Amino acid sequence: MKTDFAALALIFVVASLLADVISSQGQQPVLPGRPSGPTPAPGGVGQPCNYYSGCRSGLCCLRSGRRNDVWATCQPKGRPGRLCSEEQIKGGIYTTHCPCLTGPCPARPNNRCLYLPNN
Known about the structure:
With about 120 residues, the chain is an alpha+beta fold. It has one helix at about 1-25, and strands spanning about 60-65, 70-75, 90, 95. One of its GO terms (biological process) is lipid catabolic process.
């Protein structure tokens, strides 16, 4: 009698687990990341930006220090002769200066955007 009860309990447990596995096959995991809702429009000069809401063309998201809970704002990319930096933290937020509008930022002290043809 004890073995019959144990076998019945085991069958019930296995059937429950199997039903749970079968019912979850069409589900997708919910992973942390981008909040749900409409995609925000790219920000203009001086507007807050982050990993989820970027900046308009010709601007970069530059860390600005914490002012009114704003950590980064959209700023113009470097033009020829302006200071520049390629250094960024996660999510495309730059730390000291924006990269150059055209071409790479030279890797040397006092990095400045180069004068390139057609600038």
